[in-house]
Amino acid sequence: MADSKPLPALNGNPVAAEALLQEVFGIVMDEAIRKGTCVSQKVCEWKEPEELKQLLDLELRSQGESQEQILERCRTVIRYSVKTGHPRFFNQLFSGLDAHALAGRIITETLNTSQYTYEIAPVFVLMEEEVLKKLRALVGWSSGDGVFCPGGSISNMYAMNLARYRRFPDCKQRGLRALPPLALFTSKECHYSIKKGAAFLGLGTDSVRVVKADERGRMVPADLEQQIIMAEAEGAVPFLVSATAGTTVLGAFDPLEAIADVCQHHGLWLHVDAAWGGSVLLSQTHRHLLDGIQRADSVAWNPHKLLAAGLQCSVLLLRDTSNLLKRCHAAQATYLFQQDKFYDVALDTGDKVVQCGRHVDCLKLWLMWKAQGGQGLEQRVDRTFALARYLVEEMKKREGFELVMEPEFVNVCFWFVPPSLRGQRGSPDYQERLSKVAPVLKERMVKEGSMMIGYQPHGTRGNFFRMVVANPSLTLADMDFLLDELERLGQDL
Amino acid sequence: MADSKPLPALNGNPVAAEALLQEVFGIVMDEAIRKGTCVSQKVCEWKEPEELKQLLDLELRSQGESQEQILERCRTVIRYSVKTGHPRFFNQLFSGLDAHALAGRIITETLNTSQYTYEIAPVFVLMEEEVLKKLRALVGWSSGDGVFCPGGSISNMYAMNLARYRRFPDCKQRGLRALPPLALFTSKECHYSIKKGAAFLGLGTDSVRVVKADERGRMVPADLEQQIIMAEAEGAVPFLVSATAGTTVLGAFDPLEAIADVCQHHGLWLHVDAAWGGSVLLSQTHRHLLDGIQRADSVAWNPHKLLAAGLQCSVLLLRDTSNLLKRCHAAQATYLFQQDKFYDVALDTGDKVVQCGRHVDCLKLWLMWKAQGGQGLEQRVDRTFALARYLVEEMKKREGFELVMEPEFVNVCFWFVPPSLRGQRGSPDYQERLSKVAPVLKERMVKEGSMMIGYQPHGTRGNFFRMVVANPSLTLADMDFLLDELERLGQDL
Q1: Fewest CB atoms less than 10 Å from the CB: which of A398, B81, B202, B300?
Q2: What average pLDDT score do residues A209-224 get?
Q3: Residues of chain B with pLDDT > 90: what percent?
Q4: N6-(pyridoxal phosphate)lysine is carried by which residues (chains A, B) (predicted)?
């Protein structure tokens, strides 16, 4: 029953709430930050799923637990979680722990608001606009639009939806059945979210025409042209090309100028999936890799990857100045976007998106940028390139490492060739045996907790490692460690 | 260039990083938590957008800033942000600050991993399954599937995509053009995300057939039946009914048993959008409002709303046991979901979703549940009902308050009738004048920072307030304050 006192637990008991949070923050600082980023600690503490279930005691019961038990649970969760901020976590396109970004995230979580109206998110509505403006400027646009999305896959879906809406505004109301069959184009090296998006948006995966990539993983513009003509000949209406700036495995950059020429010629929307490579725009030295991006209609860019802003920080940027984003998505909910508010309702940007409640993702990036400046971030990007280059040169000096190709970006793809396979390259089962090396080494490194690198097969190539140099706190010593550790782990193979 | 030393800034300088985070945590504790939840402090510090821009100095520059400047920026961001944890923030369907949930969120942000593979999220893969299992059990299912989504709108989209895929698996590959015209059904009181979703998924908003609601905002099953027959007569294929448990404005619960009967008869997927009302399932006393939910095929439920788990915490629950979620969405990316891993790859749940990287949203809810127990959460839910009831009874005692209707849930919809309008109900311009009251009072309360409540027009009704009783730390005094404050703010009207 309602009475004048708050419930037991912590609700309405600020002293207990503060004490709990102080304790938890201390645990986070010790276990997740200090130990979690320390090279003398493990990057992960492997447990088999069944054992981990026991250790975690996950069941949700009727009875609550004491503060002491809860603090122990916090320690356990951290202990068995992978330390993605650790200098030997090379497993994904994100890594590292930026203290400024984390500060922004803690503030975000505490303020706990939604990005939809100026009324409840005045700071973040203005901040989102400013951050988007800055990112657009780096693309080369002095005006435009954009939005923060829950990840690059959804950013890519927005691009598809906007492109088809611009071409066929009827689609919003009448659906795809009112439209001719559509076709979109992307290279075989594209991220898998393009096909997922095509399925989700009702286009179907068949609508994705796969364009050839060259030996380095870059889309072949001549084949794009070819595919467009073929699609038209088959009665489909091309509407979008999704180029990739920084492919997932090889880190390749599609030739955007040549692709933009093709798009211009055929009147197609050019989307650039720069989820991974977009942050290279910060570097005066390396941004030429994205030359032509200013000719795109939309760009997806995830600062949570190379800039370590924290999951998730993903933007869709648009060159459009006709309010396309809002026209395409708006539903004019009167309970949220009242038109008789006492302030300029153009500041209620929530109707631009397909979400209703939307997490605030701008503060972490903004605060990090304020602290480190564009120059500081540029240095970080340049440094990852330099470290990747160092790693490549060191690999060439060691006999157990074979590069898949010279990297263009900070994905260093290579095989570790164990002692028993060295000099056997011509032998009939060489590829098959080599392909089995990475899974074995991966198991060993994870079980020891010494480091984490991803591997994958790719086209006709068997499993190779994809080393990702992204963590801003990496040093040459971490590169040397990687090489030494693979040699150690694989010495008996 | 790469060298053996890390960059200046904080990267690789753990002492500076820790010092910064300690300082920021202190600011968060003082400004966002202590002051932010204190009734003697303002719920918001209103600034006009242009002035706020000046105060925030949002521009992102080349040069970084000193730690002192950054800390001041943190204070400024908090100062001008709305305090959604404040006991006088009644503006949205989320409010309050649960210390356990916040602890879970701080840990989540620090660990910064993605929910896609057991390899990098062992704790959270297992935890997500356990939380989903518990929520499914509350729905009434002993088996099934599910996933955490970035918000209820996207959860609703998943339901639509799954329903059409189950009926027409061809859709994934061949798209909607290969299908007959589809129709889905929802009441006029549904959340606007249903129409947004229909547009995004390529169905078009015309495919949404709007079913009548009764005077309390509940879907009329007889009209649903009628609409289905009509759609079929027009050549469309009905495939989904989206019922609402807890409508956005009125807090109405659609009659699920009767709707389930209709769905069963016509072989339609029943989705229940319980984003708002789902948490009522925790209450033995009130869960009858959702009777029949166990007959649904899918349920969307946002614990970030009534349970104050923190934005975003949203689940889609499924009764399906045929791996529909994965079949519908999987793209089998070989770089992420390698099949030759050393553990059971069924634990790599990321291919069930349309995202790639996915924020960890289970820990905040799990930790809160562990601490407070199902019983503690039940008490909180029951308490919100009791406080809403108290508020309604108090309103009846005061002449300035007119209820829109007796609430079924914790949305209390009412008009504040200012002195000049009392007793004028029959007069010709009464409705028009009454409709102008809420925007004026809203402006006054926001500019004073004393409280925040939402208002909206609704159907033929002019603007009324929607008071939401959700913050777990509310007391009777907060209810009294609301009434007194509206009388004070509106005494001259």
Answers
A1: A398
A2: 98
A3: 95
A4: 305
- The Cα A252–Cα A289 span in angstroms is 9
| Tens-place pLDDT, residues A406-459 | 999 999 999 999 999 999 998 999 999 999 999 999 999 999 999 999 999 999
How confident is residue B337, by pLDDT bands cut at 50, 70 and 90?
confident
The one-letter amino acid at B401: F
The three-state DSSP-derived secondary structure of A131-161 is: HHHHHHHHHCCCCCEEEEECCHHHHHHHHHH
DSSP code string of B389-408:
HHHHHHHHHSTTEEESS--S
Tell whether A432 is within 8 A of chain B (Cβ).
no
- Alpha-carbon dihedral of residues B257, B259, B265, B267, nearest 10 degrees? -110
How many CA atoms are closer than 13 Å to the CA of B29, on its beta-carbon side? 19
Strand partners, B228: none
Q: How many angstroms separate the Cα of A471 from the Cα of each of A275, A308, A309?
A: 16, 7, 11
**Residue A341 neighbours by CB under 8 Å, 6+ apart:** A119, A348, B439, B442
Higher-pLDDT residue of B206 and A9 is B206
Cα–Cα distance between A225 and A185 in angstroms, integer? 10
| Sequence-distant (≥ 6) Cβ neighbours of residue B118 within 8 angstroms | A49, B125, B343, B344, B347, B348
CA distance B299 to B243: 10
pLDDT in tens, B397-433: 999 999 999 999 999 999 999 999 999 998 999 999 9
For residues A444 and A314, what is the distance between their CA atoms, to the nearest angstrom?
Answer: 33
Encoding tokens for residue B14?
């753990």
- How far is the CA of B465 from the CAs of A357, B348, B402, B427, B429, in angstroms? 20, 46, 10, 21, 19
Report the complex ipTM. Answer: 0.97
- Predicted TM-score (pTM) of the model is 0.97
Q: Which of residues 363-382 of B touch A (CB under 8 A)?
A: 363, 366-367, 369-376, 379-380, 382
pLDDT at B226 over 60: yes
Residue found under tokens 């008490």: B379
Q: What is the pLDDT of residue A233?
A: 98
Rounded Cα–Cα distance for residues B424 and B204 (Å): 45
Q: What is the phi-psi region of residue A413: left when phi exceeds 0, alpha when psi lies from -120 to 50, beta otherwise?
A: beta
Q: What is d(CA A203, CA A182) in angstroms, rounded to the nearest whole number? A: 7
Reduced DSSP (H G I as helix, E B as strand, rest coil) percent helix, strand, coil of chain A, to 5: 45, 15, 40
Q: How far is B427 from chain A (nearest CA, A)?
A: 23
| Strand bridging mode A401-403 / A411-416 | antiparallel
Tell me, yes or no, if B106 comes closer than 8 A to chain A by beta carbon.
yes
Are A11 and B474 in contact by the 8 Å Cβ rule? The answer is no
Q: Would you tell me which residues 47-66 of chain B have a C-beta closer than 8 angstroms to some C-beta of chain A?
A: 47-49, 52-53, 56, 58-65
CB proximity list for A359: less than 8 A, separation 6 or greater:
A108, A114, A115, A150, A312, B150, B311, B312, B359
B66 CB contacts (<8 Å, ≥6 apart)? none
* Element of type H or E holding B111: helix B99-111
Q: How many contacts does A have with B, using Cβ atoms within 8 A?
A: 574
With bands split at pLDDT 50, 70 and 90, how would you rate the model's confidence at B3? very low
Please give, rounded to a whole number of angstroms, the shortest distance from the CA of A310 to a CA of chain B.
6
Cα dihedral A116, A119, A124, A127 sign:
positive
Query: Which residues lie closer than 8 Å to A12 by C-beta, 6 or more apart?
Result: A5, A6, B472, B473, B474, B475
- Given the structure tokens 């999951």, which residue do they identify? A311
Q: How far apart are CA B164 and CA B476, in angstroms?
A: 47
- Residues contacting B137, CB < 8 A, separation 6+: none
Largest CA distance in chain A: 82
